Write a sequence for this structure.
């Protein structure tokens, strides 16, 4: 009688089963394996390369320190023309080529946002700066640097940083676009009057009064000459080119890296002002207490004003019908948080030079020093605010199923950063991240698609 157990065992042994995926491991392909140390090094290198604008700024500041005569006013490059005129004009030409005209029109009726942004930029910020500058002057801190604090508060809002940060944080791109345009136009004409209102002889600021005691008429004449050529004409020209040649403009914006070019032009404006500061001895003649006070007040006021705007436009603790009518969307709130307290060098530095064209280079450089430090701390703060605000607004973006907004604002999750700002990464809702598309600077201004509601 045959042994059934033996035959069954033999048959089972003879039959070959496919290896189980749970018990069998496939060796990793060499191309897929990256040593941990090499991966960390590669990530660090990628991060540093992404911060190219900050590295460029550091290099330009070092060059300004060792070779200030090249970029100073009246120096080798005649930067008062090549930078203050040519570079600023190119910056606003790129802005005109990047801002979508239809989106500007969409944001125009949002009067509540315009009221908040311009009230904070041209009233609250100057008033607070004036109070702290007066306190610093009373404490015998450097007079002209304290005056520069007041002037910085009176300047219009920034351009590129506000729009780029708004889009990357998931905010309303069209609202940010119209706010920076309105701020540049309104602020340009109101800044001389606001500066004259605060820096008056009646409160001890006679030495810092604009226009050399000749009134603001001379200032407006200089503004009409310079800003019409460097601000309004390039901006209008860029918008007109978009309307007439939309496809060619889109191709140029993408392939000519206009955003990076505009960032470089802005860095040159910073470099020019640092050359003047080092040449005139603005750093060496100012006390350490003055610089520390300036840095502390600037960053504190920026964060305070951002928090105030957030609280005012959201009214989180009120549930009345009036509060519901006033309360703005999260996307609009993000745009206002960046545009309200923001100040820019591209427009601010030329305006300051126009206001104090007859002032010595040393005093003018000290006044500009307040703007440079405020702008630098502002950029550092926005770097922290972008991911926080984007996370806060995520639920609103999902509720509206805005497929054109969230994909272009999800670079924080992918950890891709360029030019000190999060790059644009296509991440369709409900899918995994796809290939990153580097934007940076003005290239992220492509708000032709629906960038958010302005209600």
């Amino acid at each position: 009688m045959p042994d059934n157990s033996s035959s069954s065992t033999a048959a089972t042994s003879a039959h070959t089963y496919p290896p189980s995926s749970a018990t069998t491991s496939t060796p990793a392909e060499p191309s897929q394996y990256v040593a941990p140390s090499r991966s960390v090094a590669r990530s660090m290198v990628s991060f540093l390369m992404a911060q190219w604008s900050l590295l460029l700024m550091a290099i330009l500041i070092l060059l300004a320190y060792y070779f200030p005569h090249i970029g100073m006013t009246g120096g080798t490059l005649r930067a008062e023309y090549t930078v203050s005129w040519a570079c600023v004009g190119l910056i606003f030409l790129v802005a005109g080529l990047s801002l979508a005209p239809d989106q500007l029109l969409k944001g125009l009726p949002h009067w509540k946002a315009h009221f908040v942004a311009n009230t904070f930029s041209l009233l609250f910020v100057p008033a607070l700066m004036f109070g702290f500058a007066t306190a610093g002057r009373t404490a015998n801190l450097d007079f002209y640097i304290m005056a520069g604090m007041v002037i910085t508060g009176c300047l219009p809002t920034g351009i590129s940083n506000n729009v780029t940060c708004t889009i990357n944080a998931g905010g309303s791109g069209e609202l940010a676009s119209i706010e920076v345009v309105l701020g540049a136009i309104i602020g340009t004409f109101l800044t001389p009057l606001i500066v004259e209102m605060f820096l008056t002889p009646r409160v001890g600021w006679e030495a810092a009064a604009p226009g050399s005691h000749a009134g603001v008429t001379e200032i407006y004449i200089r503004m009409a000459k310079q800003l019409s050529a460097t601000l309004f004409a390039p901006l209008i020209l860029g918008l007109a080119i978009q309307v007439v040649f939309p496809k060619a403009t889109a191709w140029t914006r993408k392939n000519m890296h206009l955003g990076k070019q505009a960032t470089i032009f802005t860095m040159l404006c910073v470099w020019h002002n640092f050359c003047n500061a080092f040449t005139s001895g603005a750093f060496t003649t100012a006390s350490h207490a003055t610089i520390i006070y300036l840095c502390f007040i600037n960053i504190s006021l920026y964060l305070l004003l951002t928090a105030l705007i957030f609280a005012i436009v959201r009214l989180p603790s009120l549930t009345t019908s009036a509060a519901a009518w006033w309360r703005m969307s999260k996307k609009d709130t993000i745009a206002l948080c960046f545009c309200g307290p923001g100040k820019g060098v591209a427009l601010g530095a030329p305006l300051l030079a126009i206001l104090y064209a007859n002032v010595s280079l040393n005093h003018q450089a000290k006044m500009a020093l307040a703007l440079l430090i405020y702008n630098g701390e502002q950029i550092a703060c926005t770097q922290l605010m972008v991911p926080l605000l984007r996370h806060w607004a995520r639920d609103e973006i999902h509720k509206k199923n805005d497929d054109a907004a969230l994909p272009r604002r999800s670079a924080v999750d992918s950890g891709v950063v360029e030019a000190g700002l999060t790059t644009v990464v296509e991440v369709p809702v409900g899918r995994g991240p796809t290939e990153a598309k580097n934007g940076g600077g003005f290239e992220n201004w492509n708000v032709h698609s629906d960038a958010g509601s302005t209600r």
